[in-house]
Batch of 4 targets.
Target 1
Amino acid sequence: MLTRDPIPPDAVSAIDVTSTLQRRWGWLLVLGIVQILCGLLAFAIPVAASLAAALVFGAVLLVSGGFQAAHAFRTRPWKGAVLQGLGALLYIVAGAVVLLFPITGILTLTLVVAVLLIADGVVRCALAIRVRPLDGWGWYMAAGIASTFVGIMLLVGWPLTGLWAIGILLGANLLISGVAQCALAVAFRASRAREAGDEPFTHAHRHA
C-alpha cells in the first residue's frame, strides 16, 4: 500500500498564505494604487514630501529613544544600562532636533543618503570586478556606477539637493512598491480565476 509523504509545515503555511492573498487580491490592488498615488504626489511636491519624511524620521528617533530609556531604567543594575541610557538620550535629542528644525533634518538625511549611495556603488563595482567572468557582471557594474553618480551629484548640489532629494527618493520607492503590489494583485487574481476554472474539470474527472 502506497502512502503519501506528509506535506511539510512550511509548505502548508505557504499554501495558506497564497490562498488568503488570492481571496484578498482586491485589497492588495487598492494598497498598490494608494502607494502609486502617494508616489506621484511626492514627485509633484518633493519639498513637502521631504519635510514629511524628516518629521517621520524624527518621530521614529523619539519613540526609539523612549523605549531605550525605559529599558535602561528597568535594567539599572546592569553595567551597560548607563551606556544604553546615554544612547537613548542621543536618540531623543536627535529626534527633538529633527522635529523642531525639519530643514536641518532634511539636509542631514540627504548627506547620509548620499554617503550610503556612494558606499553602495563602490561595493557593487568591486563585486562586479570580482565576478567579471560570470554573466551579468555588467549589470552590477552599471548599478554601482549609477549609485555612485547619484550620491556624488547629491553631495555636489548640497544643500540645495537636500530640499527635494529625499522627497524624490521617497516618491520613487512608493511608486515602485505600488506597481509591484498591483502586479502581484493581478497575478493572484489570474491564479484564482484559473483555479476556479479548473475545479469543474477536476470534479468531472473524479466522477468519471
Note: DSSP finds seven helices and no strands in the chain.
Target 2
Amino acid sequence: MRVNLILGTAAFVCLRPALIGAPIGLLNGAVSLPATNAHGGEVRFSYRTPAPASDAKALRVLLLIPGYNGEGNAMISEAWSEFADREGLVLVAPTFKTTKDEAHSCKGYYYPAQWSGEVVLEAVRRIADAKKENAVEIETEKILIFGFSAGAHFAHRFALWKPDRVRAFAAYSAAWWDGPTVAARNVPGLIMCGEADGRYEASREFMAKGQALGLPWIWRGYRHTGHEMTPEVLRVAQAFLAHYAHPPATQPSTLNARAPLIGDIQSYRFYPADSAEAALIPGEARVELPSPAVAKAWSEERGDL
C-alpha cells in the first residue's frame, strides 16, 4: 500500500493545503488516496468547506467532476464557491486519470462500479472525519453530483450504481451513457447537452429511456451550444442542486408528488401543472420542474441575461 508522509509519520491519507490551479483562498484542503486500478498511483481530492453559517446544520457534499483527465482543483471556481457558501455545501473535486482506450473499453474512472466510486466514498468519509476535529459536521450518507463531459460519465453511472447514496445529480454532455434502470426511480437527475455537440443524440436518447421508465429526470438542450460550459448551464445546474440540497419543509418526502410546474422541451417554456397549456404538452416533451427557481433557470437561453 502506498503511503504519504506527514512530518515523517506514515499516513494513509494526506491532508494539506491545496491552492494550485484555483484562486488563492478558494480551496482549503486535499486528500490523496491510492487509485485501486491497474495504473496505481493516487487520486487527489481537492475540497472546500463553506464560510461559517449561523445555524448548526450538518453540511452536505457536492461532488464536482471535471472533463477528461481534468484537475479537480480547477472545478472549485469562484462561481461554485459562492454557490456553496449560500447553500452550505462542501465542494469535493477529484483529479482522475485514464486513457481513451481504457474509457472506450468500459474501464477506468468513467465506471465507478469498478473502483473510482469506492475511492470517492472513502475520500468523502475521510474529509468528514478530518473536519470533525474542527467541529464541522458533514453529512456523508447522500451526496450531490455535477459532472461535465467525462464528469457526466461518472455522474450518471454513480447514480445508477449507488442510487441510495445520491441526493441528486446533474450530468452535462457525456459521449455515451449506460442504460437507466428503475433502481434510479428516487434519484432526481438533470440531463443536459448542447445541440451543436456531437454528444447530443446519445444524451437525448439516454433521457428518453429514463423518461420511459418514469424516472424523475429533467432534460435541457441548448441551441447554438457545443461542448462547452456556459453561464446558462451553470445557473440551471445550481438551481437544481440547491433545490435538492435543501428541499422545502413542506415538500413531500416521496418523489411521487406532482411537481408544481411542467416544462415543454419543444419550447423550453413552463406552465402550472394544472393549466390548460400544461395539459397540451405531449408526454415525450413534458418534464416536471420542482420549483419556480428551477423553472426560471431551466427556461433561460443563451443571451437572455
Note: Residues 4-252 form a domain with the Rossmann fold fold (CATH 3.40.50.1820).
Target 3
Amino acid sequence: MTAHENLYTDGVRLVRDSTPKSRIASLLRLADEIGPDHPDSVVTGRGYTNDLYGWRQSAAMRDFIADAAIGALVRPRCPILLGCRLLIRDAGPVRATPWHTDFEHWPVRCDFAWSVWLALDDEAVDSGALNYAKRSHTDPWTAGAPVDSYEMVLADLTPGDLLIFDPRVVHGRVTPGYAAHIRRFVITRWVSAEARYRSGSELMPLAPGHGLAPDEPLVKSPLFAQ
C-alpha cells in the first residue's frame, strides 16, 4: 500500500522529522514576533492562537506551505489551503480532552479535508499528546460513543514532525497530565477543489475579505484560487 493509500485509509499519519531545523528556527522566530498581544491573537486561558492571516508576508510560512510532504500527501486530494494557525500552549496542568472530531467546526462543505500540524516543540504523552482513532473518519461516530474498537495513533511529536489527519477522525485523551514547557505548533487546513463556504457563528472564521456568500465555491475568492 502506498503512502497515499495508507493516509486515505487510516485517516491519520505521522511524518517524522519532516521539516529542516532551519525552517523550525524561522517559525519559532515568527511565533516570538507575533505573541499574545498581536491584534489577531486570541488568548485562550491555556495559551493563545493566531490565525496568521498575513502568512503570505512570511517567508517561513511560505516555505512551510511548500513543504515536500505536504505536496506529496496533502495537495493531491486537497489543493486548497483553507487557513493557517499558530497555536501556543502554556506550560502547566493539561486537562483530559473528550473524544471529538473537528470537521463540524470548519466553515466549508467538501468531500475531502486534511489538518496538518507541525510541531515546533516536544509534545509527549504527559504534556498533552492526543490519540487518533485510525479509520474512524469513515464511521458514523457520534459524541459519547465508545472508541475501544479502534487502533490508536499517539501524536507524540518532536520538533519537525508532521501530524496529518482527516478532521473527521475521532481524537482525544482520557487522562490529565502536566506540561513542563511551552508547546508551539503551526497548523494548516486543506480542502478539496469543490469546497463551498458555509457560514455560522459556531464555525471557524475564514480570512477577512474572502467575499464569499454562503454555498459559493471557495475558488471564486482570490484568497483560495488555485
Note: The chain has four helices and 15 strands.
Target 4
Amino acid sequence: MQTTTLGSLSSDSEVSSDDSTGSTSHPGCWLIPISVEGINTLALIDTGASVTLMGWPLYQTVQQVRALKLQTHNMPRLEGVGGNPVPTLGCAEVEVGIAARVYKTPVVVSARKKRPNFVIGADFLAVHDCDLSLNQKLFTVECNSVRCIPERVKTSHARLKLARWVKLPPHTEVLVSCKATQSIKHFGTFCAVAQLASNSWHYAEDGLVIGSSLVAPDKATHHIPVMNLSDSTQTLHEGTQLGDIFSVESFKHVQ
C-alpha cells in the first residue's frame, strides 16, 4: 500500500477559530477562499501535502448538494506529522472554484470529524501551475490570483446571525434576515460576501444548506438564502449563526 504525507498537518490537526474575533489560523499554512461544488469555504495551502484533502464536515455538506461517488480501491495510506495515520473514506472528483474559475480535481475524503474543511496539496499545485507569493500574499492558479490569509492574522471578518426565527417548509429556498455581530462598514467600498460558516455542516444532517450572497457593508440587515432539502419543516431560532462575512476587493457578476 502506497503511503502519502499531509505536510504540516497531523492526524489531530484542525484549523482553530476564535468565536469572538472570527480569526482563523493554522501553523505553517495559508488560507484562501474557495468553493467546493458551489459551497464556499476556506482552504489550506499545504505544499508539503502529497494529496488534496476534503474534510468530513465539508463532505457532509457537499453530499446535500451532490451525492459524491467515493472510490475506495487502491487508496493510499495517509500519514501526518510524525507518521500518525489519517483515516479516510475514499476518493472522489469534485469541482473546486478559485478566483472565478472552476477546476475538476480528485480529492481524498478524511474520516475525521474535524477541520480543516479542505487542503490543497502538491498534486493540485503541480497540475494547475500554481504559485504562492508570500511577499504579495497572492495564490495564483493558471494566471488567476486570489489573496491569501496568512496564519494567525485576524481578517476583516464578522459572524452572521439570524435576526428572527424562521420556519422553512420542506423542499424550499427562503431568504432569511441576518445581522452582523459587529460593524462591517470598515470593510471597504465593495460589498462583503456572506460565506458558509465553519460550523454550518451541522445543518446538513437536518437537510439544510446555507447559501452565500453579496451584502452591502452599510446595511444593518442582510439576506442570505437557506434551502431546506428535507421532507419536514425546519425551524431556525433567532441568534443562530448561519455564516461569516469577509471583505472583498472585487467580485465578478456571472449570469
Note: The chain is about 10% helix and 45% strand.
